[in-house]
């Protein structure tokens, strides 16, 4: 390899490694700020690395699973309340006054954006359904006991919706 | 070691080779995309959670993975062009850029159209979506940088440096869903372990990914040929070619 090419090769490789190093340091410094949401246990105990807890009145996102059996609806309005938990054992109540997405079910992962209230509840302005990376036909899901039931609306709620 | 490659650094030979390869890429692309899309959209079973809405995956995932693969192809060409100053490599990089931009746009658009019914929103500023948007801007930057210099040697050098700087974004896109919590789900297709998708859905998806790869290859060859002709307009062989096809 002639010296000019060698010089250019060194420069190009140095450029790639330099940018990679700068980007890794930047991302390392930003690390937890790039997370889209807090998990329920992070809201209660603070973040793992920094211990920062969200303050009351702060606008945050929470991500976790809707706890089975925790959903309660107001028969008169769209108001719903449900608990969101995570694998680490934290649980936070979420209140919401709008239409829930189709994929919203108990046991389903969700991301809710809202304001943290003084009583520890999150007053959500937006609830998004998160789905996982598993795809399978309904029959397979049934056989695996993973069948997801659509939300069951009581007779009272159906009457209220009319 | 690379001696056998040297003849292809000649524009005329590279042109001839691309002309010979192009019909094969086109044929394979059409075959794979037809089989994969019809199988995926009409015959694959519906999903237990998302019903039929998940079928947009057969366009979304091939487009997204090829947007990254095209970038890696462009970066390799730009690297060769910068270090060995082979003009053909510069032209190849310039040929890929607009194709990559379009395929990235398709990935973003189908993703948004899928996100609305499933997540409940068109767009979220999470790590995966944002880094893919940055990829689109990188492509647009490379295209405009290459277009803004009259001297194409300088243009290719400037665009090549930007391309190499942007390579760092590719691992960030790939691992964004593992490093940070995001609304976007982690990858379904795994290379080292079993994919988390039923085989009758996975096969059409893989076929479509291959098909998209061949399609990008075919369009790249068309643009590469055009780029060779545009940069060699004064050469006798191009003139001969022009008069020969013009006479037909």
TrEMBL record, chain A:
It comes from the Bacteria. Its main location: membrane. The keyword Transmembrane helix applies. Residues 1-8 are cytoplasmic. The keyword Iron applies. One of its GO terms (molecular function) is heme binding. GO terms for biological process: cytochrome complex assembly; protein-heme linkage. It is found in: Cell inner membrane; Cell membrane. Residues 30-162 are extracellular. Heme binds at residues 131, 135. GO terms for cellular component: plasma membrane. It is a single-pass type II membrane protein. Keywords: Cell inner membrane, Cell membrane, Cytochrome c-type biogenesis, Heme, Iron, Membrane, Metal-binding, Signal-anchor, Transmembrane, Transmembrane helix. InterPro entries: CcmE (IPR004329), CcmE-like_sf (IPR036127), NA-bd_OB-fold (IPR012340). Pfam families: CcmE. Belongs to the CcmE/CycJ family. Heme chaperone required for the biogenesis of c-type cytochromes. Transiently binds heme delivered by CcmC and transfers the heme to apo-cytochromes in a process facilitated by CcmF and CcmH. This is Cytochrome c-type biogenesis protein CcmE. The gene is ccmE.
TrEMBL record, chain B:
Required for the export of heme to the periplasm for the biogenesis of c-type cytochromes. This is Heme exporter protein C. Belongs to the CcmC/CycZ/HelC family. It is found in: Cell inner membrane; Membrane. It comes from Shewanella salipaludis. The lineage of its organism: Bacteria, Pseudomonadati, Pseudomonadota, Gammaproteobacteria, Alteromonadales. Residues 26-184 form the Cytochrome c assembly protein domain. Signal peptide: none annotated. Keywords: Cell inner membrane, Cell membrane, Cytochrome c-type biogenesis, Membrane, Transmembrane, Transmembrane helix, Transport. The chain crosses the membrane at residues 21-44, 56-84, 91-115, 127-147, 154-173, 202-224. One of its GO terms (cellular component) is plasma membrane. InterPro entries: Cyt_c_assembly, Cyt_c_biogenesis_CcmC, Cyt_c_biogenesis_CcsA/CcmC. The keyword Transport applies. One of its GO terms (biological process) is cytochrome complex assembly. It is a multi-pass membrane protein.
């Amino acid at each position: 390899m002639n010296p000019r090419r060698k010089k250019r090769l060194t420069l190009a490789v140095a450029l790639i490694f330099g940018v990679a190093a700068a980007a890794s340091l930047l991302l390392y410094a930003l690390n937890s700020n790039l997370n889209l949401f807090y998990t329920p246990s992070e809201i209660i105990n603070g973040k793992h690395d920094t211990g920062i807890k969200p303050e009351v009145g702060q606008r945050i996102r929470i991500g976790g699973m809707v706890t089975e059996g925790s959903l309660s609806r107001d028969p008169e309005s769209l108001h719903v309340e449900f608990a969101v938990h995570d694998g680490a054992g934290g649980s936070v109540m979420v209140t919401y006054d709008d239409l829930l997405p189709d994929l919203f079910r108990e046991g389903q992962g969700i991301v809710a954006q809202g304001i943290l209230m003084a009583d520890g509840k999150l007053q959500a302005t937006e609830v998004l359904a998160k789905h996982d990376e598993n795809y399978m036909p309904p029959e397979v899901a049934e056989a695996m006991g993973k069948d997801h039931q659509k939300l069951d609306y009581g007779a009272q709620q159906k009457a209220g919706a009319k | 070691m690379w001696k056998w490659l040297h003849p292809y650094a000649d524009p005329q030979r590279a042109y001839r080779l691309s002309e010979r390869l192009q019909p094969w890429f086109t044929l394979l692309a059409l075959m794979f995309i037809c089989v994969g899309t019809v199988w995926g959209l009409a015959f694959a079973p519906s999903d237990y959670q998302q019903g039929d809405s998940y079928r947009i995956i057969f366009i979304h995932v091939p487009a997204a993975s090829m947007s990254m693969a095209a970038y890696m192809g462009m970066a390799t060409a730009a690297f060769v062009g910068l270090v060995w100053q082979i003009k053909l490599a510069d032209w190849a990089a310039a040929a890929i850029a607009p194709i990559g931009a379009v395929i990235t746009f398709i990935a973003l658009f189908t993703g948004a159209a899928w996100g609305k019914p499933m997540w409940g929103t068109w767009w979220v500023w999470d790590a995966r979506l944002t880094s893919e948007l940055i990829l689109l801007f990188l492509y647009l930057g490379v295209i405009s940088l290459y277009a803004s210099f009259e001297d194409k040697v300088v243009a290719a050098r400037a665009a090549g440096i930007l391309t190499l700087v942007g390579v760092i974004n590719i691992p960030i896109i790939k691992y964004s869903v593992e490093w940070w919590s995001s609304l976007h789900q982690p990858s379904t297709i795994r290379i080292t372990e079993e994919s988390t998708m039923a085989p009758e859905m996975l096969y059409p998806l893989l076929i479509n990914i291959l098909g998209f790869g061949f399609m990008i290859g075919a369009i790249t060859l068309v643009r590469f040929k055009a780029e060779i002709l545009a940069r060699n307009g004064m050469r006798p062989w191009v003139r001969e070619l022009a008069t020969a096809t013009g006479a037909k």
